[in-house]
Amino acid sequence: MLAVDVKNIKKTFVTKQETVEAVKDVSFQVEQGEIFGLLGPNGAGKSTTILMLTTLLSITKGEASILGLDIVTKDKEVREKIGVALQDTGIDNLLTGKELFFTTCRLWGYSKKDSEKRTMELLELVGLTEAADRRVKTYSGGMKRRLDLGLSLVHSPDILFLDEPTTGLDPGSRRVLWEEIKRLRDNGVTIILTTQYLEEADELADRLAIIDEGLVVAEGTSDELKASIGGDVITFSFENDSDLKNAKNVLNDAIEDKDQLRITVENGAAKIPSFINDLNKNGIIVSSVSASKPTLDDVFLEVTGYRLEGSAGSDSSNELEVK
What we know:
- The protein has 2 domains: 4-220, Rossmann fold; 228-321, Alpha-Beta Plaits, CATH 3.30.70.
- The protein has 11 helices and 15 strands.
- It has helices at residues 46-53, 75-81, 97-107, 112-125, 141-151, 171-186, 198-204, 222-229, 241-250, 268-281, 296-304, and strands at residues 4-14, 19-30, 35-39, 61-66, 69-70, 82-85, 159-163, 190-195, 207-212, 215-220, 232-238, 255-257, 260-265, 286-292, 317-321.
- Strands 6-7-8-3-9-10 form a 6-stranded mixed β-sheet, sandwiched between helices. It has a 5-stranded antiparallel β-sheet with strand order 12-13-11-14-15.
- Strand 1 (4-14) and strand 2 (19-30) form a beta hairpin.
- Helix 3 (97-107) packs across helix 4 (112-125), helix 5 runs parallel beside helix 6 (171-186) and helix 8 crosses helix 11 (296-304).
- It is elongated, with a radius of gyration of 23 Å.
């Protein structure tokens, strides 16, 4: 049985001023026990998709099921199977971490004794035992994220939805949360997470779907998506905009990326000399050129035509400086 089965779901918001298609057509399937990532920029439809799948927002069209349960007709049963940690949560800052866990356990129907036991288990799980008696308002951003993660696990859900779980965290805190997420997966929890970080998708997701403007534009494992580009990525830099524009006419298959041109070919390093020769014949000066294996950044650029904001770009190898 699939953990999540999504078929052509859509979400349209209608106001007096306009009609907005937040999710145009999204389909994917998630196997039990895997981490599935939804990668895309802000406004792509990732969070809206999560809200629909967790029964917090109605579906305009299409259908979806959680462990075989239709999310529309079996919404109560679905909520018992899932845990949810959204970007914006209403955590009570005046309570201590221990009090918040205990109260949440009681709301889920645990007895006082079981609530005390479960509270200590979860505090240890997310590394907050030493901060258990501190008020939440004194927690750092990373600690609050781990607290929120723990609260979503109170009722031992089969499936966990995480909406951009590491947004705003420093690199160290992000790494700690990654380890928590992978440990949950290793313990049998199915995880669906949204992210706008390429490194996070590469690190965590067993499989992922790239969402752009409310549509799934690519899906597969990280390696499958990188392989789909084929060959090596050659990146050319130029002294001025004029040379870049002229080079684009010579390298017909190249993609313009800010102030560079990128082209994907087999055996890239070996073909660099012939490309430079063609450009030089046309009076075009190349300031630098590099060849590298495709990254998720290259995949995203290939399928959407632009980069994720803040992406660092590909890690170059075999870089050659041309003077």
